[in-house]
Fold this protein.
Amino acid sequence: MLLKRKFLFGTTILAGVMAAAAPALAQSTQVPGVTVTGQQGQEATEIEEVVVTGSRIRRDPVNSPTPLIQVEREDLLSTGQATVIDYLATIPALSNSLVPSDTTGSNLNDGGLEFANLRSLGSGRTLTLIDGRRHVGSQAGTLQVDVSTIPRLLIQNIEIITGGASSVYGADAVSGVLNYILRKDFEGLEIDANWGQLVQGGEADTRRISVLAGANLLDDRLNIYAHGEYERAEEVYSEHIDWLRRGRVALGIDADPTQASLGPVNDGFIDVAEFYGARRLDRPQWGSTTLANMQRPSRLSDPDVPFANCSGLSTSSACFNVDPAYTYWYDGPTARLANFGQRIGNTGTNRPWNIGGDGEPANLTAFNNRSQFPFQESERYQTGLTFQLTDNIEFYGEAKYTTEDTFDVGQFSFWDIFITDAGFGGGINSGSFVGPGLINGTSQFSTRTDNAFLPANVATAIQNNTFVRYGPATANADGPVLNPAQSGPIANHRGFGIERNQTNNREITRFVAGLEGNWDRVGFIDNVNWTLSYVHGEMNNVNREQGPDAIRFGHAMDSVVDLAGEVNGRPGEIVCRVQLLNARGITIREQNPNTATTVYTDPNTNPEIAGCVPLNVFGKGNQSPEAIEYITAAIRVRETNEQESAVAAISGQLWDFWGAGPLGLAVGAEYRREHTQGIGRSADTAGRVLQLNTGADFLPAEYESEEWFAEMSLPLLRDSWMGEYAELSASYRAFDYTTAGEGDVYGVNLVYRPIRDITFKTSFNTSFRAPTLQEGFRPFSQTFVNGFVDPCHTGVIANFQGDDAAQTKANRIANCTQLAAAKGLAFDFGSTTVTQADDYRPVYGSGIASVLGGNTNLNPEESESFTFSTAIAPRMFPNLSLVLDYYEITVNNVIITPGGQFLADDCVSNAQLNTQTCGLVFRNNPTTGDPFDNFKVGAPAGDPIGGFILGPINRSKLETRGLDFTVNYSLDTEEAFGRNWGRFSYSLGGLWLIDQKNFTNPADPNAFTDSTSGVFFPRVEFVSRLTWRPNDVLAMTWTADWMSSQDLNKNRDLVATGNLDNQPYDWNRTGNFTRHDFAVRYDLRDDLTLRANVTNVFDTEAPPFLGFASTFDPYGRRFNVGLNYRPF
């Protein structure tokens, strides 16, 4: 809260306001007219009535109607965390905020964004304000504010309301408000600089310098300031993080029987074990080659290897499981059978893991070795002024410009290249040759054994390949050998290729102008305060995504030897096959699946053919820079947000009816316009087939809102036999959106202080959130669903664990059977037969192409929140305060954008097929010889939709409730013990999460998913800070950030399914997690302060089976230093 202080605080404690180097709940122990004397005759603190966040009525901060958390500027400057949001995320109420490490990977257009997320209800339900005013959103069509664009040195403090506040501040304040209060009337020069490590070992660092200058002119009637800031953070890769480099992986070592007649699910053998130093060899960068083969299925009483049929020339993934006799590894230009070392992982048909052999280290494969923290380079500028026009009227203005460039690498491009001469006739130089290799989409290609870069031993092995076929296993016998051996002259060369990366530039401009004034009295209204403000903001974002052009990749990798020099007159030269075909006058059809019948009109000048550069895809390090340049494509998206906001408000005090204090009243109106538009990736795609995300233009979309609000405070008693003070307040807001329509919200608050030592507060608020322009109007664009697990997979159904597992299994069996029957297929989804031949066991080799877009039929979200707070500041312990804040929030008509996995699971997991979600999942793969492929989620290459339609929907509700707690205490040793050992300050702030429920099944309103105690939702978390100030110039702080253990699997689910041997028991929970930080601050001179931090002093790591989770501090021990210089 904004306090006008006439004296320094000394040892005075305003409960929850002052806590050394810690965010604190803003409550106060004082009442009007009461003074507290500090040590050594320190003069008393005087507190005046001000406007407090959470209300527009001026009042004593003691009587603030809602709970507040306050963060000081010094907290932000002194932290060892890399960013503002990383520090805010240490506050339990904000622990699941979006931090930069969350913006890497497959996400687009969001590099480096920092969004606050109160109560883990989503950043879109948290309203961020600057001095109580709106700020333009940082992503196209959204309202979330990137808090990194708010310069740290300009921040006075951050006030956080933890509860619904739409009736006071408008839409989006569903879970609360973050109000950044900027410094006022700054005079002088201040320079702040910081350098720090981003990761243990120092492979990446961050640095920042900020300068603030201000002056008072015209007899102090005019104040002007200017601020500039530069910040740079290096990119952190997976390989920079020590615990990822250890190559830890959890693998199946035992598969349980799927039928009780075959044996118990709990057979006493642990199903999963962990291994270190593991390597994976089935899909390395630039590939390994596996010849067609078939794995022998295990007996059904111990079904480690399931039955997967291979018919010889099929391109089914069931035919290309890695095997020591069929898989080739590349060393430079040569190939040999792969070294499987000590093979680990006994379950599944494809068992690619080993220790000591070939392959890429676990966690550092081309799939995993991506950016974990994006490269960021930012410049931020802001200037402003305040001008006292008269004694009662002030003009203020601000102008702001920020620019940020980011870069990060996501998953590398991937492909499957089938090598066979079958169906193509002979080689390029044989008379029976017909046509080029095939390009079957963005990631599936074909070439022949005459490929110029394919080692001769591999080509010969493919041509002569045969393998043993096996029949289905029985209860007590492995699958029998079927004679004769199967001819299989085909191989799959699969791997990762060039990286897919993105660069992003985001610019924000914001202008603020306004007038504010006050009069002692207007008519019968006292202490009149009024404000008029206007905000204009713009966000411009340009994202450049880079990856492979599939057509060019297909041409380049299908290279041959031009024996006669027909292309360039150089016999023996390696050329692209299409170039040699063109030189021979053979008609070449485009390989674009969308235009498969089109003939190249002028192949001699077409850059896809004339410019083709042969690409060696057989082994890492064999690729020429010219070939990489030829296959690399880049596309851009350009997006704009524009915001206009105007607010007029007036407040004052009316009558004092019974001596408790005057009636407070505030009324006002707000107009806001949000506009967005963009040029999509399709403009740059220009008909090309790219392994990148495409998308149409974001056509101009906007909405306008008109809102009217009122607020009232009614003091009920003061210095009465019934108590020290009580106040009832209420707020109301009516709105009219051009998209969401009309509605209203309200809030009621009560403050009661029976004695000066204790204060009670309670509130009930309704709030709303209108669908954003992105949720409503986002154009459909291509995306990929990665890591998909088919909920109809026989093994997945058998091993399903979760609430009501038995019923869910039965539902999936019935619903998947119905879906398959509609396609004329039949599988044994429930393992009811004593064979695996009729099971459904698909293998998904890569991401599933899908589309993602908006939904114009969305309804606004509505919420109700209730809080009850108790603040205790006992007089017998003048430096102690305790605050408890209980909260309940329910959000209805929740807008979610479910992922493909959610849609597929929800389609088949209920008592009947869910027509809403089933209609968004497509099993449209073309008919092949493999029935698994026919039923898999997906669509033929060139299909405009793909496997999923992803987009926002209104879906049931969210509920959360919990208890915030804060303890603050300070001790002056000289006052307490007569010995001057300095001053100690202690704070403890935390959260006890009672419930975090997600109701996602409209057919059963009482069914919910309980996230409480799950990963990212610890039952208890707190931050403890102890600061020792031995003298006036030195302060040392120890911080402990603690989270209770979180469930990866709930024990009750394992008991319900009887699968107690699923994995080691201690893997089911993360265990408690504590990170310790040390900080030192030293005032070298009056104008120079030095500081140093060690973050995660004891290098605490999350359990390795959890994987990368930003809330568990994955970066290890790191250091930072900084200074603050104030020359005048």
